[in-house]
């Protein structure tokens, strides 16, 4: 089988800043990546954003290796190796601590004869709707988003600040950097990064699905409609995408965020996040 691209959507949190999400979609594979917001003092790479670099570079290289005929896990290994080599050549200096390394969450899918294989890092997700069946969620995005909301709420209360001021407030930075320093280690989660070893820690599964199955790939910024704001459940979000289209749901998303700009109702570190989604059909 192969993927048919039905709709795609990617918008930055702030139109004046770089979009740190990226996606790619081909008949043989599709991916969304979400660059982790920078918590360092200076960017180490040329361009507007190290997080945008890792997301867009990763999407391009994954799709290139899949077009070249790589098996999915080999494509991931090669894309990580490409990132490792390019990062070493482009950076102004080696990172002093792990929090200075660019990381990205990822959901990467590739069809086969019986459905598709899914590979993921972090809190990107795939929502699956088989013909005449309920929705299935691939990945741990809902659990991770709920855990993050609890942490943000506790941190905001301890600091006496509005939750959504987090990424721009000095009071939050020590906590954010300490958490980021655990990434790609035995004490933390693994993410897409300039580190070939990450391939050995990717989460993966095979999803059995017939032709006609819909697959929605989403970064956490778009998934927030269901995971954070409870405007939909997983099945409802898929139906809304079918009925309204991704652009219309993007308008809904930004309206919900604007209505809770400080994050006091829905605890989160930023008022808005980059939001990306890709709707596919197995055919």
What does this 3D model show about the protein?
There is one protein chain. The protein is α+β, with helices and mostly antiparallel strands and 283 residues long. The protein is 34% helix and 23% strand. It has a single domain (3-282), classed as Phosphatase 2c, domain 1 (4-Layer Sandwich), CATH 3.60.40.10. The chain contains 7 helices and 10 strands. The strands form 2 sheets. The chain has a 5-stranded antiparallel β-sheet. A 5-stranded antiparallel β-sheet has the order 2-3-4-5-8, with helices on one face. Helix 6 (234-244) packs across helix 7. It is globular and about 50 Å long. The mean pLDDT is 92.
What order do the SSEs take from the amino end to the carboxyl end, as H and E?
EEEHHEEEEHHEEHHHE
User: Kindly, what is the distance between the CA atoms of the first and last residues, rounded to a whole number of angstroms?
Assistant: 6 Å
Determine the number of helices (DSSP H or I, runs of at least 4 residues).
7
Shape: globular
Query: What is the CATH level 1 assignment?
Result: Alpha Beta
How many domains? The number is 1
As a whole number of angstroms, the C-alpha radius of gyration is 18 Å
As residue ranges, the low-confidence spans are none
What's the number of extended β-strand segments? 10
Here the CATH topology equals Phosphatase 2c, domain 1
Strand percentage lies at 15-25%
**CATH-scheme architecture:** 4-Layer Sandwich
Structural class estimated from helices and strands: alpha+beta
| Helix proportion range | 25-40%
Strand order of the largest sheet: 1-10-9-6-7
